[in-house]
């Protein structure tokens, strides 16, 4: 089982030869039966299992795609998701069967919020066409080749409905669909998990839409919902898990990201993403600590270099990109003022903004 300190390695040791084969049967004798157990590899400990499919489902407009993208970003960056950390060296293929332009904006917004000016090459977005479905043999062969060449650790299929065109209410079709998704992810040369984004049924309390065989076919199912008392809070729950104990629910909050223009002709936009409440609390703590430092600097304010030094004196180690991002938020909110003195940039505490 992987820990957060390991790097992905090629999966060359998972096949165990039987004593005898005939007519396609594998046979193990005596203590060699233990060889048939194989190894359970967790892409994300107690959450995502290699070579298996997890279903992420919920009602329309509840934030399913946002959660899936947050998961993908955490995988690529070796970040934390649902209280567990991805190993370093993760790679993701995100298959967007509808509105891939929107998915691209949200992916970019996540990295901008993290202080990154670019999206790493370990993230691949596969755009949707009018017929990006499992029944399209040509496109599926292309996708399998991408998985083989790119060797991701996670493939996300968004959405199940767009990528299947058979009868989702039939158990045989549900089995066939999940097996087809498994065949795709197993083209990867490293342990790889798959996640399908799906809808809940007309009665959300009864779980995913379609045949109950779908629940049996996936290894784990995650349910996304909004809190009734606070629509800005999204809940992610583990409904069922075959290989581990279900985890306690975790929560996400909406965050609006200011998007820099990609060209001079483009207007600046705002894009919504979701981040975990733990991340939100950490961001709030950073803002309050930086604001406290700026408030002590007097009438001329402080430069970024001075801020970094002051932060280190109280045990805080901010990267330059993180500091600039937080300062921009505080300026936009009117908590501090940014001004130039020659080529130097200063940040000044605004007393009037904090006076009741």
Give the helix proportion (percent range): 25-40%
Query: Strand order of the main beta sheet, please?
Result: 9-8-10-11-5-12-13-14-15
Uncertain ranges: 1-5, 12-22
Oligomer: single chain
Q: Which CATH architecture of the largest domain would you pick? A: 3-Layer(aba) Sandwich
Structure annotation, total helices: 9
**Strand elements, count:** 17
CATH class category name of the largest domain: Alpha Beta
Strand content: 15-25%
Largest sheet: 9 strands, mixed
Rounded radius of gyration (Å): 24 Å
Write the CATH homologous superfamily of the largest domain: P-loop containing nucleotide triphosphate hydrolases
Number of domains: 2
Keywords:
356 residues; alpha/beta; Rossmann fold; Arc Repressor Mutant, subunit A; 2 domains; nine-stranded mixed β-sheet; two-stranded antiparallel ribbon; 9 helices; 25% strand; disordered N terminus
Topology readout:
Layout: E1 20-22, E2 25-27, E3 42-44, E4 48-49, E5 53-58, H1 64-77, E6 80-81, E7 84-85, E8 92-96, H2 100-113, E9 123-126, H3 137-150, E10 154-158, H4 160-163, H5 171-185, E11 193-199, H6 213-217, E12 220-226, E13 233-241, E14 250-259, E15 269-276, H7 277-295, H8 304-313, H9 320-333, E16 336-341, E17 344-349
Explain the overall architecture:
- The chain has 356 residues and is of the alpha/beta class.
- It folds into two domains: 42-258, P-loop containing nucleotide triphosphate hydrolases (Rossmann fold, 3-Layer(aba) Sandwich); 277-354, Arc Repressor Mutant, subunit A (Orthogonal Bundle), CATH 1.10.10.
- It has helices spanning 64-77, 100-113, 137-150, 160-163, 171-185, 213-217, 277-295, 304-313, 320-333; strands spanning 20-22, 25-27, 42-44, 48-49, 53-58, 80-81, 84-85, 92-96, 123-126, 154-158, 193-199, 220-226, 233-241, 250-259, 269-276, 336-341, 344-349.
- A hairpin with a 2-residue loop joins strand 1 and strand 2 (25-27).
- The relative contact order is 0.12.
């Amino acid at each position: 089982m992987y820990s957060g300190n390991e790097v992905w390695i090629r999966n060359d040791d998972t096949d165990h030869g039987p004593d005898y084969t005939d007519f396609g049967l594998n046979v193990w004798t005596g203590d060699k039966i233990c060889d048939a157990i194989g190894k359970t590899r967790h892409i994300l400990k107690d959450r995502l299992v290699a070579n298996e499919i997890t279903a992420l489902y919920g009602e329309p407009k509840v934030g399913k795609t946002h959660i899936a993208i947050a998961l993908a970003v955490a995988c690529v960056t070796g970040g934390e998701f649902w209280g567990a950390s991805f190993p370093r060296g993760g790679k993701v293929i995100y298959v967007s069967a509808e509105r891939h332009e929107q998915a691209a904006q949200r992916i970019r917004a996540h990295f901008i919020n993290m202080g990154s000016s670019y999206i790493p090459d370990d993230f691949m977005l596969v755009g949707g066409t009018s017929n990006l479905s499992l029944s399209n043999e040509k496109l599926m062969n292309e996708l399998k080749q991408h998985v083989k060449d790119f060797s991701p650790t996670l493939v996300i299929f968004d959405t199940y409905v767009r990528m299947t065109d058979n009868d989702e209410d039939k158990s045989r079709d549900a089995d066939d669909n999940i097996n087809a998704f498994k065949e795709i992810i197993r083209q990867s040369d490293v342990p790889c998990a798959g996640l399908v984004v799906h809808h809940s049924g007309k009665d959300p309390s009864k779980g995913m839409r379609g045949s109950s065989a779908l629940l049996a076919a996936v290894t784990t199912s995650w349910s996304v919902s909004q809190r009734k008392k606070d629509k800005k809070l999204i809940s992610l729950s583990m409904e069922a898990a075959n290989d581990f104990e279900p985890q306690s629910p975790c929560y996400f909050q909406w965050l609006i990201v200011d998007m820099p223009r990609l060209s001079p002709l483009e207007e600046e936009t705002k894009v919504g993403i979701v981040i975990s409440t733990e991340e939100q609390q950490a961001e709030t703590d950073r803002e309050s600590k930086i604001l406290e430092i700026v408030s002590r600097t007097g009438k001329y304010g402080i430069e970024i270099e001075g801020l970094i030094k002051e932060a280190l004196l109280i045990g805080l180690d901010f990267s330059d990109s993180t500091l600039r991002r937080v300062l921009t938020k505080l300026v936009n909110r009117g908590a501090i003022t940014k001004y130039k003195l020659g080529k130097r940039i200063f940040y000044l505490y605004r007393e009037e903004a904090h006076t009741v």
